[in-house]
Amino acid sequence: MTAIETLRSAMPDAAKDVRLNLPAVLAAGGALSSAQTWGTALASAISLGRRDLLDALVEDARTALGDGFAAVYDDAVTAASLMAMNNVYYRFRHQIGKPEYATRPARLRMTKLAAPSTHKADLELFSVAVSVINGCEACVRAHEAALLGHGLGVAHVEDAVRIAAVVASAATALFAGETIPARG
Predict the structure, then answer these.
(1) CA-CA-CA-CA torsion for 73, 74, 79, 81, nearest 10 degrees?
(2) pLDDT tens profile 79-112
(3) Are the beta carbons of 175 and 53 closer than 8 angstroms?
């Protein structure tokens, strides 16, 4: 039994769809490579802060990616941590809507975006997934445009967002499964 299968058993019956969707989005066959799929899932789990979910994904990703795991995990951490910063900053700029903020330099260091451990397109995929989870429209648009510029298509973006959505729903289902309300 894989770590993800074990984790799925901790989800309540009301989350049956989540239990079915999680292995489906992680399976081969979509537009994404195995490294892109696992990196997107890892970045999403890191951004959501669920240790049990991240641990299960790490265990299964190590098996799936072998020697390539460390580089993918490094870029997943990069995407989650930099988007935690950027999504807050750029969401503020977008929400405030004042041109004077948009013309000011961000003064936020993000050099790792230019020198990923894997590929720029992969880091962009991980970043768009985290940006969707964090709700930053400006970052979602910027990373989607970068992905198209790297030669990836709408199917790649959609697969990454689908993975982010299912990982987010798995985090919610696991939280709900931790405490079953008393019937009364």
Answers:
(1) 110
(2) 999 999 999 999 999 999 999 999 999 999 999 9
(3) no
Cα-based distances in Å from 80 to 104, 118, 131, 146: 24, 15, 9, 17
Q: Does residue 39 carry a catalytic annotation?
A: no
- Active-site annotation holder among 83, 139, 147, 171: 139
DSSP string, 54-104: HHHHHHHHHHHHGGGHHHHHHHHHHHHHHHHHHHHHHHHHHHH--HHHHTS
Cα–Cα nearest to 15, from 179, 174, 181 = 174
Which among 128, 133, 136, 140 is annotated as catalytic? 136
Buried b (16+ CB within 10 A) or exposed e, 85-124: ebbebbbeeeeeeeeeeeeeeeeeeeebbeebbbbbbbbb
| 35 is known as an active-site residue | no
How confident is the model over 4-48, as pLDDT tens digits?
999 999 999 999 999 999 999 999 889 999 999 999 999 999 999
- Residues 64 and 16: their CA atoms lie apart, in Å, by 25
